[in-house]
Design a protein that fits this description.
Strand content: 15-25%
Order of helices and strands: HEEEHEEHEHHH
Oligomer: single chain
Length: about 170
């Protein structure tokens, strides 16, 4: 949802290809390739590796946007490296790229209620309350991506890696 919102805001049309919806454009003077793989996140590592190779983009220029169960709903975190933290999609990327050194924008979705399978929770619809917050959450997440791309990681991290109560 964040990547789709960013593509709309940045006026980057996404075209359907065999493996993804993707498009190219610019943000300020920064060329961008935006891609949403058709594969499940858990299997996206090979796609991302191949896309980087075909596009001659180095992993140092990759930004992955993903959900995070360990962050409260609506919390954003930018990280420049790290392990999978139990996220199978990130595990797939680390395995396929053979490095943990890539930037991530984590979007908090919170923990499932007691007794609910985390995999089921991740794929379930947002609650009514969460749905009402989606507009502002998506706008903040796109702002974080813009800051990351235009201003660089240190400034973006200082601006967006804050506790929810501080926001």
């Amino acid at each position: 949802m964040v990547v789709l919102q960013a593509a709309v805001r940045w006026r980057i049309p996404l075209h359907h290809s065999r493996l993804a919806h993707q498009g190219t454009g610019h943000l300020a003077s920064h060329p961008l390739l935006v891609a949403l793989p058709h594969s499940w996140m858990n299997q996206s590592g090979v796609f991302v590796r191949d896309l980087l190779s075909e596009s001659a983009i180095g992993v140092e220029n990759l930004v992955v946007v993903h959900d995070d169960l360990d962050l409260d709903f609506g919390t954003l975190r930018i990280r420049l490296k790290g392990g999978a933290g139990g996220h199978n999609g990130i595990h797939s990327l680390i395995f396929s790229l053979e490095t943990e050194q890539f930037c991530r924008l984590k979007v908090g979705i919170g923990r499932p209620p007691a007794g609910q399978d985390p995999a089921e929770y991740v794929l379930s619809p947002f609650s009514v309350e969460e749905s009402h917050q989606m507009g502002s959450l998506l706008a903040r997440a796109v702002e974080a991506l813009e800051s990351l791309i235009v201003e660089g990681a240190p400034k973006a991290m200082n601006r967006f890696n804050i506790r929810q109560a501080e926001a």
